[in-house]
Design brief:
By secondary structure, the protein is mainly alpha-helical. Helices cover 81% and strands 0% of the residues. It has 3 helices and no strands.
Amino acid sequence: MLRIYITGIAILVIAIVANGLIVKLGLKSWYDFIDILSKNGTSALSKTSVIEYLWLFIGYPLVLGLGYWLGDKIYLSIF
């Protein structure tokens, strides 16, 4: 149970940092993307750039995976 908790905290911290950096870079986060979809429907899909799609569907999952990996390494180094 402690392993899951530590890993979850690592993923959360990495996600917060990633979202902060993305906002600074001017890219859409999942929150922005969902907000645009809810307001504009499918026409919002054309308002999203290729780089934003790459971030949302490739970069962000990789970053969260890094959070998992980091959390697992932290747990294994402690116990």
